[in-house]
Specification:
Strand content: under 5%
Structural class: mainly alpha
Radius of gyration: 21 Å
Helix content: over 70%
Distance between the termini: 61 Å
Amino acid sequence: MNHVVTLQDAITAFADFIEPTAAELDAVEREMPVILADVDLLDAHIVTLDRTPTEVDERRIRRARRRALAARVNRTAGASLPGGAA
């Protein structure tokens, strides 16, 4: 006889492993400035997809690119300093 395992049984069996750990949540929190800066950069690029970028658009893209780079530099600099100081 073949036993049929329902999807609910399979999910419930691993319920403890589905939730993110505190360390995973901390890692996401540390990455948020980089993620948000990348979203701003993408938004700046998306605005110019269907038209020629104006001077204001170009400035917005440059500022967003600088913020994205600064967020990455700050993330790596903070990770390399002892004691979690940034």
